[in-house]
Amino acid sequence: MSAVDERRRGYRSRGSRLTRRTQPVLASSAGPLGQPWAAADAGRSQNAPAALADAELVDSGKSWAKRYRRWLRITDAAIVAIAVAAAYAFHFEEGGPVLSRGGAGGSYLAVSIAFVVAWVLALEVHRTREETVLGIGSEEYKRVLDATLGVFGGIAIIVIVAGIDVVRSHFALALPAGALLLLINRWQWRGWLNRQRLFGHYLSKVIVVGEPSDVEYVIRQFGKVSGAAYEVVGAALPAGYTESHVQISAQRVPVLCDVDSVAEKVAETGANAVVVAGRLQGGTRSIRQLGWALEGTRAGLVLASSLTDVAGPRIHWRPVEGLPLMHVELPRFTGGKHTLKRLVDIVASAAALLILSPLLGALAWIIVRDSKGPVFFRQERVGRNGKRFKMVKFRSMVTTAEQDLAALRDLNEGAGLLFKLKNDPRITTCGRWLRKYSLDELPQFWNVLRGDMSLVGPRPQLPCEVEGYEGDVSRRLLIKPGITGLWQINGRSNLGWDESVRWDLYYVENWSLTGDIMILWRTFRVILHPVGAY
Asked: Which domains does the chain have, with CATH numbers?
């Protein structure tokens, strides 16, 4: 069974929703192959211009990428123009100068046009449509945000230095509206692209080269990524190996040739890239010779890094006298980035408590009517650096839940130190749908405002769980726990102990504000389509 057939089967078995989780384990010299917080739900969006949908879907080269980028360019430009025009119209509708009166109105129109042009150019300069970031990972979204913020920062500097008198609300309206619409546009296109990829279209055909164990590892990681951009058409092993195929679960990947004959097989199979898995016999010289052999084939050369659980932004290449050095930044747990994260937490949690206050009141009334006991459930959890705090949730269990736990230990369905029971008899009637849609966690915004928690972070730990920590698991406590996190968007209660720990440790060492935005975005989708919530 091929990788494409396996993805098709997985897609059909779940209807229009894709639930396979991405794994944060592979990096490449051609760009990050996957960020765990940005995997697109391939079945979410199916709309696309008919001109592209009706085009030939199976390409021997990369013409699909040119068409896809062209449509991105058109829709991006349209969104930017609409956002700026809407802000312009809103300002002048509210009593500002109008174009027909000349003067300020005319100058604002010129500034708006220049603004649109600068924004569109920034999206191009920041390479937001580069093939290596399309359809997978958070880098595409990050570049869109960087381009948008760069344009507004540049305009702000010009306005201040040149002493130009402009209405700030004009740009203040265009910034969030345009950025949000651009991200939604990319997400919609990504959903459409990934759905096509599930059925074998718009894929980059690759041949994986290396030792059998390394080849198996890379192919397995490709298979874990929903909507992966790569279709493995074959493998190439060093001379001396006699295997006819590489077996990964139900997938059989044929061994096409040895390493020295890869270029010939690229031409025969129409492969778009050769992925080098691990070290080759002969070291860097073999890789250099492989690159020479691929000259003229139009196939790219991709090096799969042996680094695992390290996010792309922490990896930097710096050549020194012809020697390419890979610098891996060590994680930092203090400094300006953490201060900014705390500022975002304060503003967002305060706004959430204010906006959601009617809903919070309604839920409190429902809980009181449903069963006897307090509205809130306060439980001791362990926060950053082992500091204990009282986490607040809406009560979703009977008041004797803690005392009843001992009798249910033998029914535990969780792994490791986690206690999970799908049909827990302690959960109240309203508690089931409170948990299903994560409404019981809304009071935790108060913990975020107080500074006990963050919007995004590792799962809040119980003291009994922390006491059983061994080895590196305690690194979970290096940052504040979160209301949501990678554990929330990648299975929740369905996660085993090892998976839960790995997601948390990955976040601890690789978090970023852009990544937090992606996690929050995916959290809303998970809440609407809950998986593993009980």
From this structure: 39-198 (no CATH), 204-328 (3.40.50.1980), 336-528 (no CATH)
